[in-house]
Amino acid sequence: MTTANTPVLHPDLTPAQRDCLDALPLTGSRVVSGPPGSGKSLLAAHRAVHLALTGRPTLLLSRSNLLRQLLNGMLQGLTVPGTPVEAATVHGWVLRHFGYGAPRTQDGWFDWAALTQQAAAALGENEAATPHLVVDEGQDLSPGFYRMARLAAATVTVFADECQRLTETNSTLTEITDALGRSTGRVEIAGNHRNSREIASLAEYFRTGGTRPDIPFRSGTLPVVRHYSGTTDLADDIAGLAARHPRDRIGVIVNSLRTAADLMRRLERAGLAHEPQLYSSAASSGRYRDLDLARPGVVVVHRASAKGLDFDTVVIADAESDSATDPTAAILRMAYYVMITRARQRLVLGWQGSRLPRHLEGLHGWVHMR
Fold first, then answer.
1. Which one-letter DSSP state was computed for residue 305?
2. What Å distances lie between residue 16 and 19, 21, 123, 163, 191, CA to CA?
3. pLDDT tens digit string along 103-154?
4. What's CA 21's distance to the chain center, in Å?
5. Count of alpha carbons within 13 Å of 303, Cβ hemisphere only?
6. Chain-centre distance of CA 31, in angstroms?
7. Do residues 270 and 320 share a domain?
8. Largest CA distance in the chain
9. How far is 267 from 272, CA to CA, in rounded Å?
10. Which GO terms describe its molecular function (predicted)?
């Protein structure tokens, strides 16, 4: 490999992240695990570029379309001319690879067992076109997907964190490794380069299982638990954050699509310096589908699409929507672990109603109550 064909490493890569990439040979399947903020998405983009340099088609896959957009932006800054690499959703790749008649199950998702049989029947037919697959947030896909991918791809590299399993079709690291085969290697990447110490410490309160990650050294402000009298009060607070921090990317994470739409109407009338953005998975194209995640301003996103993203400031807008949920439930704690760890510098957990939601009780010392 000549120097001219070598991608320039991202200037923000740490020595540990570079060591992680060096530990990934260009043959065989690998599972890379790490906590939020360890740089898995960035490493996934680098891994895809490295594999593309072999000349084989390479895809960087995610289940989330919004994460695909983020990964595509990363690839644009890394790819070398002439290397066939692109970001795609798993859904889009399956339709492209198996056709729009790809068999599905009753829940509307793909029939992985049937697709595995198709992949086995086509094994070796067009070796040069068999792609390398790199999967980000791989815990969101079922073992069935990986059994199929093992046959449909030349190699599969999975970046995952089993403490962030929010989908109904998810996998543990062991399940992913077993599905890809006994020869699959495991690599771990440590460190948290995103969150402040205060934000990471609050996230630890909600983490379920896994090895306790190192708490970052960088210090910041305490997260805030804030009561809002209504949606107008919430929108005014978000507008105030945008005015005080005009260069920030502010992620507003909601659990209710109605709240999202109401907030957008109010924010669009608030005269913000940057037009607010809203992501809707129901939109097929246009302003509610294709976002600019790199520019400053407010982005309203449902919690189901927040994984893999990061923002300077995060507002969890409607914590009261979880009031009826058992505060010890793993799915609830995972959801808050994911949402909290999206924040780089500032975090607000907002709620409405007459009583503090039970899962926000007992946080004294980790947060300011307002």
1. G
2. 5, 9, 37, 21, 9
3. 999 988 999 999 999 999 999 888 888 999 999 999 999 999 999 999 999 9
4. 20
5. 25
6. 16
7. yes
8. 65
9. 7
10. 3'-5' DNA helicase activity; ATP binding; DNA binding
Rounded Cα distance between 250 and 209, Å, is: 29
Strands (E), 58-99: 58-62, 85-89
Q: How many domains does the chain have?
A: 2
Q: Is residue 27 part of a domain?
A: yes
Q: How far apart are the first and last CA of the chain?
A: 58
pLDDT attached to residue 124: 85
Instruction: State the pTM of this model.
Output: 0.92
CATH assignment at residue 259: 3.40.50.300
Among 133, 155, 188, the domain boundary falls at 188
Evaluate whether residue 7 is within a structural domain: no
The Cα 322–Cα 338 span in angstroms is: 15
Which of the four pLDDT bands, split at 50, 70 and 90, describes residue 5? very low
**Residue 240 exposed, middle or buried by CB count within 10 Å (0-12, 13-18, 19+):** exposed
CA 112, 70, 268, 222 dihedral sign is positive
Amino acid 111 reads: D
**CA separation, residue 332 to residues 82, 258, 322, 343 (Å):** 45, 20, 8, 18
Q: Return the DSSP state at 195.
A: S
DSSP H or E segment with residue 151: helix 143-152
Q: Both 182 and 288 in a single domain?
A: no
> What residues make up the domain containing 181?
15-188
Cα distances from 352 to residues 97, 206, 225, 265, 361, in angstroms, run 46, 21, 11, 19, 14
Bridge partners, 155 (sequence order): 132
CA–CA dist 36, 194 (Å, integer) = 8
Cα separation, 90 vs 92, in Å, equals 5
Domain assignment of residue 3, yes or no: no
Whether 1 maps to a domain, the answer reads no
